[in-house]
């Protein structure tokens, strides 16, 4: 993983470029249009600073490129050749497959549960199965919520990949917030 400083520096450079494109394309903007332009350029800058290597970054760029007006902005930030490569890559990708790591973990946990069940008397077996079912349902609900929060998370089948994508997304969001806070502080001081 890259250093936080280089990530912030690249994000700031691309975000400023995106803001310049938005401002030059439309001279008079309403507050709502300005807000959308800031968010769109920040999202694309954040996604492009990860070079489209993650599922969430590709999902952000593809979702933004669905609107015809945003394609110019995306092409300017990414560069025309990078944008076309990314679109080809996304259109040719198939749904992600499960990684064997999660299968191994699941098998290991099931075998441990069976061993615990065998050791206990019959009455305790129901309690263990009930607790297991409750825990399993809780994890299932939380996984569903996590998939809805991460862009492109619905396409991720494997839990390990989902967690890795989420961590990367959180780090990128934190860098975005830090840069935006620094810009706001600099504007307040001047």
UniProtKB/TrEMBL annotation:
The keyword Transcription regulation applies. The keyword ATP-binding does not apply. GO terms for biological process: regulation of DNA-templated transcription. InterPro entries: IBH1-like, IBH1_N. Keywords: Transcription, Transcription regulation. Transmembrane segments: none annotated. It holds the Pfam family IBH1_N. Residues 5-67 form the IBH1-like N-terminal domain. This is Putative sequence-specific DNA binding transcription factor.
């Amino acid at each position: 993983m890259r250093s936080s400083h280089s990530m912030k520096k690249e994000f700031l450079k691309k975000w400023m470029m995106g803001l310049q494109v938005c401002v030059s394309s439309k001279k008079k903007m309403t507050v709502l249009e300005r807000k959308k332009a800031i968010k769109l350029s920040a999202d694309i800058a954040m996604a492009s600073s990860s070079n489209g290597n993650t599922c969430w970054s590709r999902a952000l760029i593809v979702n933004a490129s669905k609107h015809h007006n945003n394609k110019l902005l995306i092409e300017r930030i990414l560069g025309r050749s990078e944008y076309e490569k990314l679109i080809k890559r996304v259109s040719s990708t198939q749904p992600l497959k499960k990684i064997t790591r999660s299968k191994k973990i699941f098998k290991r946990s099931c075998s441990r549960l069976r061993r615990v069940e065998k050791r206990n008397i019959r009455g305790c077996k129901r309690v263990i199965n009930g607790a297991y079912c409750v825990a399993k349902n809780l994890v299932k609900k939380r996984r569903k919520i996590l998939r809805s929060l991460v862009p492109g998370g619905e396409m991720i089948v494997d839990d390990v990949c989902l967690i890795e994508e989420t961590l990367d997304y959180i780090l990128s969001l934190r860098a975005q917030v830090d840069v935006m806070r620094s810009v706001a502080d600099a504007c307040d001081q001047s």
